[in-house]
């Protein structure tokens, strides 16, 4: 079977990964020690054994606790550099990394500390690994739109260090339209726009992400399959879906990988991509997502090629870079 080798070595872009979700238990413990932060787990093994999730919220509680060890610019650099080395090993040529500033600014860490540390890792990735890395600032949707506006204000001095904004955290009960005004402002600022929608939430949230927020990509979007008119819209407008199969498995969005709908999305002509979401928590980086999903669902080499192509088409890389890749 040559499929795993094809999947591992094929050039690809990663469009949906939260940098705080790349924090491995070993690094959480090392940073806790370095910073004198106490965490409610005795060992790496005990922490990892807490990674048994039943839904999105059960994961988010542990994910935000893990991020509490990040204090200095060097911490953010070290976290991002560790991920970027794994991305390079997975033949990722381009990665657009989400970060959640409110998780840090609410603990008294400055926006500058977060952004500068992550940005310095992106610069080094290009020079030392040949990986083209960019940042997307995400607003936490369980917080208010006012807090999102405040976060945007704090980020504006670093406007050139991120390419767009997204919307993440607890989906159900926090529809996209809650953030209509702040996304309109980001649009005026020329930022790229994306949002998590249709992970656990209904197709109606995908519609409002498109029509109210005017996003260019949908993160997850797997629930769109329940709405035939929405599927037509996504295909007609070539709206990329950044699908994360191992995340969906671990958060019980699908009962097993064999029942994942990635193949149906591709066969319906959607610009679906494969991504790792929170690789340290969900059991694998992007290549693991490809190999496990293909093994479970029997997707073809044609599907693999389409996914790689979709990842570059869906990226926000420069027209010049996309010309080379496509
Ligand atoms: N933050 C990190 N991972 C997330 C996910 N899968 N959904 C929503 N918010 C997140
Ligand atoms: Zn996500």
Q: Give a list of the ligands.
A: adenine, zinc ion
| CATH architecture tag | Alpha-Beta Barrel
Task: Compute the number of structural domains.
Answer: 1
Q: Biggest sheet, open or closed, and with what strands and sense? A: 8 strands, parallel
At the third CATH level, what is the topology name? Answer: TIM Barrel
Top-tier CATH class = Alpha Beta
Average pLDDT metric: 98
What are the low-pLDDT stretches, counting only 5+ consecutive residues below 50? none
Helix content: 40-55%
Please work out how many helical segments DSSP would assign. 17
How does the helix and strand content classify structurally?
Answer: alpha/beta
Determine the strand fraction and express it as a percent band: 5-15%
Give the total of beta strands. 8
Q: Please give the alpha-carbon distance between the first and last residues.
A: 27 Å
Structural Rg: 18 Å
Which shape, going by the Cα principal axes?
Answer: globular
Largest sheet: spatial strand order: 1-2-3-4-5-6-7-8
Site (Important for catalytic activity): 220
Binding site for substrate: 278
Active site: 199
Family: Belongs to the metallo-dependent hydrolases superfamily. Adenosine and AMP deaminases family. Adenine deaminase type 2 subfamily.
Characteristic key phrases:
326 residues, alpha/beta, TIM Barrel, eight-stranded parallel sheet, 8 strands, 14% strand, binds adenine, binds zinc ion, hydrolase, Ado/ade_deaminase, EC 3.5.4.2, Metal_Hydrolase
Description:
The chain is an alpha/beta fold. It has a single domain (3-314), classed as TIM Barrel, CATH 3.20.20.140. The protein has 17 helices and 8 strands. It has helices at residues 3-9, 25-35, 44-49, 56-67, 73-89, 101-105, 111-129, 145-155, 180-188, 203-213, 228-236, 245-250, 262-267, 279-282, 286-297, 301-313, 319-325; strands at residues 12-18, 92-99, 132-140, 164-168, 192-197, 217-220, 241-243, 272-274. Strands 1-2-3-4-5-6-7-8 form an 8-stranded parallel beta sheet. Helix 1 (3-9) runs antiparallel to helix 15 and helix 5 (73-89) packs parallel to helix 7. The protein is globular and about 50 Å long. The model has no long low-confidence stretch (mean pLDDT 98). Zinc ion binds at residues 16, 18, 168, 196, 219, 277.
């Amino acid at each position: 079977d040559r499929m795993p080798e094809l999947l591992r070595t094929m050039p690809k872009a990663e469009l949906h990964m939260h940098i705080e979700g790349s924090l491995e238990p070993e690094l959480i413990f090392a940073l806790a020690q370095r910073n004198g932060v106490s965490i409610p787990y005795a060992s790496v093994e005990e922490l990892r054994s807490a990674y048994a999730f039943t839904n999105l919220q059960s994961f988010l509680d542990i994910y935000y606790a893990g991020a509490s060890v990040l204090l200095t610019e060097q911490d953010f650099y070290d976290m991002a550099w560790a991920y970027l080395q794994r991305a390079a090993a997975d033949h990722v040529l381009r990665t657009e990394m989400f970060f959640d500033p409110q998780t840090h600014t609410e603990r008294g860490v400055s926006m500058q500390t977060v952004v500068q540390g992550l940005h310095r890792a992106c610069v080094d990735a290009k020079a030392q690994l040949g990986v083209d890395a960019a940042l997307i600032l995400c607003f936490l949707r369980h917080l208010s739109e006012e807090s999102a506006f405040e976060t945007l204000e704090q980020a504006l001095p670093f406007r050139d260090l991120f390419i767009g904004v997204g919307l993440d955290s607890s989906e159900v009960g926090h529809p996209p339209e809650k953030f209509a005004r702040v996304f309109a402002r980001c649009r005026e600022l020329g930022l790229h726009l994306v949002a998590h929608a249709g992970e656990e939430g209904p197709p109606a949230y995908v519609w409002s992400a498109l029509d109210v927020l005017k996003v260019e990509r949908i993160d997850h979007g797997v629930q769109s399959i329940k709405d035939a008119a929405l599927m037509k819209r996504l295909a007609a407008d070539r709206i990329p879906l950044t699908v994360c199969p191992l995340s969906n498995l671990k958060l019980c969005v699908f009962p097993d990988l064999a029942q994942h709908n990635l193949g149906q999305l591709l066969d319906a002509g959607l610009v679906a991509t494969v991504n790792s979401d929170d690789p340290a928590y969900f059991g694998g980086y992007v290549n693991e997502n490809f190999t496990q999903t293909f093994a479970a669902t029997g997707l073809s080499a044609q599907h693999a090629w389409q996914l790689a192509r979709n990842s570059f088409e869906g990226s926000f890389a420069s027209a010049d870079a996309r010309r080379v890749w496509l």
